[in-house]
Specification:
Oligomer: single chain
Number of strands: 4
Structural class: alpha+beta
Strand order of the largest sheet: 1-2-3-4
Helix content: 25-40%
Length: 72
Amino acid sequence: MSHLTFEEMDNPGRKTKLFSVKSNHDGTELGIIHWRSGWRRYTCSMLPDCDWSDDCLDELSAKLKLLMEERK
């Protein structure tokens, strides 16, 4: 069962993708996936006061890995 939705956001003038991470439970935004150029990888900036279970973190990790594979 999926706990998260990843909605691609407009990122005008940029090559990299930007995603809103939302809860499937109530649609609350939990964070933003973005490209961190200094790290040369996608990262997630999590919003304050959001709790994350191991299942949610696994889903997020899988999405980040997929985005990195797409960049190769």
